[in-house]
Design goal:
Layout: H1 2-9, H2 13-17, E1 28-31, E2 46-53, H3 67-91, H4 98-101, E3 108-115, E4 125-130, E5 136-141, E6 147-151, E7 154-157, E8 166-167, E9 178-181, E10 188-195, E11 205-206, E12 224-225, H5 226-236, H6 244-247
Antiparallel strand pairs: 1-2, 2-3, 3-10, 4-9, 5-8, 5-10, 6-7, 6-9, 11-12
Pfam families: 2OG-FeII_Oxy
Domain Fe2OG dioxygenase: 106-198
Organism: Hibiscus syriacus (Rose of Sharon)
């Protein structure tokens, strides 16, 4: 998958232009910062964005250099995601199928990032500080490094491990704040698979899981649709703040 992503991003510019789009309704698009006109500054990366589930693109809509491997990789990530949702459900004391049954594994968006060498990495980021706004993220990264997570007000490196994937409730499981440093080495390639229904025309409402609430653990957030939650990111960009504060009771 990493080789396929690199092959696409290193195509001739004219070939890549055919896939360039800023239209969020396009199932596969090649773009730069999705928040280019809303974020405080631009990040040092290009991205292929593709909605793969529940209604993915036709094979011919995917670039030939990436097509077969992206379809195969998506199948495996979906299988892994369903397994992880079962484990997370059990960890919350719920039935294994709980999170899957409420739709958490229904949608999948795959973002394939390409971070070129940066001549002045101290002036920008590969990806600004943020926390993901989906149900679950599965991240594949190469050996260049640069991913950091915020822990007790300190930025800690997440060193790449060959063959490993990185993972991310009423604050029971927290989406970690993270960023990617720009790097003089490169290019760096990563593939983030987001289990989200934010692109779907769904009016389903989510909120703190009722089975987890009690007098001593009241709801901390109001109910919302995924689309409303995700729209905060598109309106504000990766500005270093989490959308959660908007929904806190």
């Amino acid at each position: 998958m990493k080789h396929g992503v690199r092959r696409f991003h290193e195509l001739d510019v004219e070939e890549k232009k055919a896939y360039y789009a800023r239209d969020t309704d396009t199932k596969f698009r090649y773009t730069s910062n999705f928040d280019l006109f809303t974020a405080p500054f631009a990040n040092w990366r290009d991205t292929c964005f593709c909605i793969m589930a529940p209604d993915g693109p036709k094979p011919e809509e995917l670039p030939a250099v990436l097509r077969d491997i992206q379809l195969e990789y998506t199948k495996e990530v979906m299988r892994l995601g369903i397994c992880l949702f079962k484990l997370l459900s059990e960890a919350l004391g719920l039935s294994p199928n709980y999170l899957e049954e409420i739709g958490c594994s229904e949608g999948l968006a795959v973002l394939s990032h390409y971070y070129p060498k940066c001549p002045e990495p101290e002036l920008t980021f590969g990806t600004s500080k943020h926390s993901d706004n989906d149900f679950l993220t599965v991240l594949l990264q190469d050996q260049i490094g640069g991913l950091q997570v915020l822990y007790e007000d300190q930025w800690l490196d997440v060193p790449p491990v060959t063959g490993a994937l990185v993972l991310i409730s009423n604050d029971k499981f927290k989406s970690v704040e993270h960023r990617v440093l720009a790097n003089r080495e490169g290019p760096r390639v990563s593939v983030a698979s987001f289990f989200t229904t934010g692109m779907l025309p769904s009016s389903r409402v989510f909120g703190p899981i009722k089975e987890l609430l009690s007098e001593h653990n009241p709801p901390r957030y109001r109910q919302t649709t995924v689309k409303e939650f995700v729209s905060y990111i598109y309106e504000h960009g990766l500005d270093g703040t989490s959308p959660l504060h908007v929904f806190r009771l």
